[in-house]
């Protein structure tokens, strides 16, 4: 049941003269929606049974049913047969969603924020799921992580460093970790790194925010891939940059468009090893053309190499940073995919003259990354455990991708066409069977399945319909059960 204060809020909303023109069910629906938007009704919170709420407010049960039906259609609540209605788990921060009516409501609500603050708030941020369920994208398998080994290394670090490990650390990052990262990217990614060019951060997201604010001014233009990673676009929007979308084809970002652009553009952001979300790899000639463009225009290349550890077919391509003799490339790496997201360690490999400014800037954000985690990770890498873990997970993920491809081919062929990726933790699928993307995603969510829509990742917001299916964090049995549920949900949707 609603708390007294929640019920009063609903009643107060109903009584407001400015809402009088709305039908009663719409007023009730909006009142509840407002409680959800305000955070008064958090994700997972059960809503009163329609009969009980009808009685408390003094309306018919059909009116409440109509209100709940609309809330459900908009994705604010979930309805489970036999157990009632609940506030949806992902109500506020669904990644990739574009500004719409709900956000417009938020705009009226925000208390005295700066324009920048308002824009950040309205973007919805990039909060990811706390307990991922199939097919949440970009999530690695964490259940088999070698925790006893990690714990042992952490104990060793504490024993050796003693209470010194409890003090502040170097804002640029712990030296042993910077060395381990430099060795790793040089060997595995063909980078040109040294420990003193590595800046350890908490995430790629932090790296994008730092680059946006340190290398460009509000109003400056930055090329981004179209479609693009929502986290990058939001970081750049929040910094007041003008994102200039550049189409992506089977060979990656179309560099011809960049070279031909008559207006000044200060940087380009891209995911060349494994484009997010299409999964394509940027060809070598385009990499070289991009490096040449950046050198001629003194522009920056911001290279997000987020999941390149996991490549299942063909040889990995060397990163752009390693090919760039002009030091115009900032390489961004993260351990979110290769180890676990809760670690919160990412890094950048910087041109030498950017190391000091970027390090100073990061002290204004968070001082430094947690020392114990850095030192433990350094040991994990030095001991060869990182390489071993990545190799093991690569095998597991390749098998899971295989399983998913077969399952999609068998059970979802009437609805989607999979685009089997050469690597990464998710597979793009294009909708082919006449289903609408929003309806498909909502239908999936009703049966406990998360899909990230593709069309909203396009700059125009109406790119080709489809979704991403994360596969890495789910066992073959879980993948099968989820694909069957999804197929059933799609069949029901098609019939309705
Ligand atoms: C393209 C891309 N870059 C970066 C990240 C996030 O990495 P981090 O957790 O280090 O911010 C993701 C996560 O989904 C991603 O898909």
Task: Describe, in plain words, how this protein is organized in 3D.
The protein is an alpha/beta fold and 496 residues long. The protein folds into 3 domains: 4-100, Arc Repressor Mutant, subunit A (Orthogonal Bundle); 147-383, 3-Layer(aba) Sandwich (Aspartate Aminotransferase, domain 2); 388-495, Aspartate Aminotransferase, domain 1, CATH 3.90.1150.10. The protein contains 18 helices and 14 strands. It has helices spanning 4-15, 24-37, 50-57, 61-73, 101-109, 115-123, 147-161, 175-189, 204-215, 230-238, 255-260, 284-297, 320-323, 355-365, 371-382, 385-411, 437-446, 476-495, and strands spanning 77-80, 84-87, 198-201, 221-226, 242-249, 252-253, 267-270, 300-304, 329-334, 346-349, 416-418, 426-431, 452-453, 466-470. It has an 8-stranded mixed sheet, sandwiched between helices. Strand 1 and strand 2 form a beta hairpin. Helix 7 (147-161) packs across helix 15 and helix 16 packs parallel to helix 18. The radius of gyration is 24 Å and the shape is globular. Pyridoxal-5'-phosphate binds next to helix 9. Pyridoxal-5'-phosphate (PLP) binds at residues 138, 203-205, 229, 231, 271, 276, 304, 306, 334, 336, 341, 346.
Which characteristics define this entry?
binds pyridoxal-5'-phosphate; Aspartate Aminotransferase, domain 1; Aspartate Aminotransferase, domain 2; Arc Repressor Mutant, subunit A; 496 residues; globular; alpha/beta; single chain; 18 helices; 4-stranded antiparallel sheet; 3 domains
């Amino acid at each position: 049941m609603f708390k007294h204060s929640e019920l009063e809020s609903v009643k107060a909303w109903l009584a407001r003269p400015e809402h009088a023109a709305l039908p009663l069910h719409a007023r009730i629906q909006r009142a509840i929606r407002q409680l959800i938007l305000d955070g008064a009704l958090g994700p997972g919170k059960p809503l009163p049974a329609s009969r009980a709420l009808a009685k408390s407010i003094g309306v018919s049960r059909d009116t409440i049913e109509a209100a709940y039906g609309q809330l459900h259609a908009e994705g604010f609540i979930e309805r489970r047969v036999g157990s009632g209605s609940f506030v949806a788990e992902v109500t506020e921060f669904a990644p990739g969603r574009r500004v719409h009516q709900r956000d417009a409501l938020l705009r009226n609500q925000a208390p005295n924020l700066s324009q920048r603050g308002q824009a950040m708030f309205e973007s919805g941020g990039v909060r990811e799921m706390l307990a991922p369920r199939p097919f949440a994208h970009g999530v690695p398998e964490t259940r088999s992580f070698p925790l006893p080994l990690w714990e042992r290394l952490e104990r060793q670090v504490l024993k050796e460093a003693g209470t010194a490990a409890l003090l502040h650390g170097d804002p640029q990052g712990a030296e042993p970790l910077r060395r381990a990262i430099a060795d790793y990217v040089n060997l595995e990614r063909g980078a040109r790194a040294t420990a003193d060019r590595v800046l350890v951060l908490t995430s790629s997201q932090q790296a994008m925010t730092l680059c946006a604010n340190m290398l460009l001014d509000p109003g400056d233009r930055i090329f981004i891939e179209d479609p693009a990673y929502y986290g990058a676009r939001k970081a750049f929007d929040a910094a007041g940059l003008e994102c200039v979308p550049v189409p992506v084809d089977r060979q990656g970002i179309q560099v011809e468009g960049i070279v031909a652009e008559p207006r000044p553009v200060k940087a380009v952001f891209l995911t060349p090893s494994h484009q997010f979300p299409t999964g394509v790899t940027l060809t070598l000639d385009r990499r070289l053309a991009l490096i040449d463009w950046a050198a001629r225009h003194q522009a920056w290349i911001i290279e997000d190499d987020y999941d390149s550890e996991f490549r299942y077919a063909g040889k990995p391509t060397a990163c752009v940073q390693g090919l760039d003799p002009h030091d115009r490339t900032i390489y961004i790496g993260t351990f979110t995919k290769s180890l676990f997201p809760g670690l919160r360690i990412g890094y950048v490999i910087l041109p030498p003259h950017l190391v000091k400014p970027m390090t100073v800037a990061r002290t204004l954000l968070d001082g430094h990354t947690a020392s114990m985690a850095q030192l433990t990770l350094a040991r994990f890498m030095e001991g060869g455990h990182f390489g071993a873990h990545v190799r093991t997970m690569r095998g597991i993920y390749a098998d899971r991708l295989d399983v998913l491809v077969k399952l999609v081919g068998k059970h979802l062929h009437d609805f989607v066409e999979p685009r089997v990726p050469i690597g990464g933790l998710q597979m793009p699928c294009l909708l082919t069977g006449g289903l609408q993307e929003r309806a498909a995603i909502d239908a999936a969510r009703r049966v406990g399945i998360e899909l990230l829509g593709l069309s909203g990742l396009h700059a125009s917001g109406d790119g080709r319909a489809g979704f991403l299916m994360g596969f890495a964090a789910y066992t073959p049995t879980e993948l099968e059960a989820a694909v069957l549920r999804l197929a059933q949900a799609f069949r029901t949707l098609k019939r309705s």
